[in-house]
Amino acid sequence: MSVYVDPLFVTPRTARWPYPHACHLFADSTEELHAFAAKIGLRREWFQESRRGAFPHYDLTSRKRCEAIAAGAKQLTRFEVGKRILNEAATHST
User: Residue 27, exposed/middle/buried by CB under 10 A (0-12, 13-18, 19+)?
Assistant: First the structure.
């Protein structure tokens, strides 16, 4: 089992998200994701459930991304993330 981060992307600043960049923290299992998130100081209320076009994840600032990598999260490229999402969709559709 593993925990992953995708590359940073530019985000519009809002009252809810005043940061210029973000990425996603996700894992092979929800249990592992929550345990890892707690380890790096994320609140459970920040968890985003799976919904159309998304997967279960936490949004990270660039600083939290660095903390996640230092704590053992694996960095994936956008291509690798897309491939994982497609594989998950194929697995759940059969």
Answer: buried
The three-class DSSP label of residue 69 is helix
The residue extents of the domains of the chain are: 3-93
Categorise residue 25: left if φ over 0, alpha if ψ from -120 to 50, beta otherwise. Answer: beta
Integer Cα distance of 93 and 70 in angstroms: 35
Amino acid, single-letter form, for residue 23? C
In 10 A of CB 36, how many CB atoms? 22
Give the Cα separation of 6 and 79 in Å (integer).
10
Q: How does pLDDT run along the chain (94 residues), one tens digit per residue?
A: 699 999 999 999 999 999 999 999 999 999 999 999 999 999 999 999 877 667 899 999 999 999 999 999 999 999 998 888 787 767 766 5
